[in-house]
Amino acid sequence: MVALAAQVRRGAIKSRQMVESCLARISAHDKSLHCFNQVFADEARAEADAIDRRIARGEEAGVLAGIPIAIKDNLATRLGRTTCSSKFLAEYRSPFDATVIERIIAAGAIVIGKTNLDEFAMGSSTENSAFGPTLNPWDPERVPGGSSGGSAAAVAAGMCIAALGSDTGGSIRQPAAFCGCVGFKPSYGRVSRFGLVAFGSSLDQVGPLTRTLRDAALLTHVIAGADHRDSTCVNQPSDILPSSATLGELTAAQLPSSNRRVRIGIPRQYRAGNSPAVDAALARAVEALTECGCELVEVDLPMTAQGISTYYVIAPAEACANLARFDGVRYGRRASLGATDSLFDLYAKSRSEGFGPEVQRRIMLGTYALSSGYYDAFYKRALQVRRLIKQEYDAAFARCDALLGPTTPTSAFLLGGCTDPLAMYMCDVYTVNTNIAGICALSLPAGFQKLGDRTLPIGLQLQSQAFADRDLLGVVGSIVERAISPAFALASCI
To answer: What are the φ and ψ backbone dihedral angles of 209, each rounded to 5 degrees?
Structure first.
């Protein structure tokens, strides 16, 4: 993406060429993979032509000049609908753009479409979409991960140059691992959540899915920074890229990187319960990092096992509060009423018809956790454990620059192959604590697993302390990427 945008600004290639290439891939493969809920072909072509004309006149086109980017369908856009892959919002059109959308458009990006997701971002497989599942481009019989499965699959299949997703408990990093992409979850407060349809307000963050670490750094730099419309967004400018690099002058050479010696922590708790292929990928990474001069230390994160239970109290509690607005009166589809039905019946029917099973399950979990008599036993205790998890990370980061471990315990599983909700929740065992603690994390491609005639990607995760995003994407991430990430051919997965 960095190099392509630079070529567009120089006039070496046309934005229209990139758009047509992505649209051709979408036309060829999206009917079978279902990465997109909506594709904006005519609008993307018109915007690409406008960018090409600006460049021909010698005008500035932005650091993302002409780059086709896909948007997870829980980010508000004036273009098209914002559905959250739910029947409730199937026809909803936002009157405004999310802050991150405003920023990528201002930087010259082209919104090529809205991608499929688990309904209201609640899921780990993109099987919970009201519009049908997305398939993994490496193996269409398997899931792409979730909830940002459409965004990850679209990047992996070459249907866009990059994509935006949201991450509440691993929803960027887990699909990145399953689809062989780079996925970055920024520190809580680094990126504005204005215009992101809320799931868990103390956990949600918007972040990029790309093919390379440098692309993730560039896209994060564009979307990060203060926003007065989001009170949880830190009041400081984006600093992901070197201060000497302006958006108009940025080249690949100016992106952050370093060869300095770094200290990588390997949590003992991340070595149990994984598939042999994931354990082998982690072992190879440890060996490669040792050979390239990194110092590796063992650390303890004993609260890892408590992360899932803590997350599935806090996140549903926040979800049931956030989704209370969807009642068929103020927002969303309204159920048909009989002559004797009451206002209560309207609410109940609208929500029963509009929300899918997983969303209903989490609303009920959250309502139970917040109910009288159970608040102290569940929600208050989960908040206390949350503090302990954060303190545990702080202690670990006092000994190392970053933590390395699997993104997921296994590679992508079969469609319909995980029907037990608790088993599905355990897919996020290595990712949820990142959101609970508010720190930043990065999933990088780290190898493959051969299953019959199919090859499946495996991802490894780097975590670093809150607001160390620049170092994680730059100094630490670039060293680890060079050591462990294989080269991915664009056409290798479809």
So the answer is: -125, 125
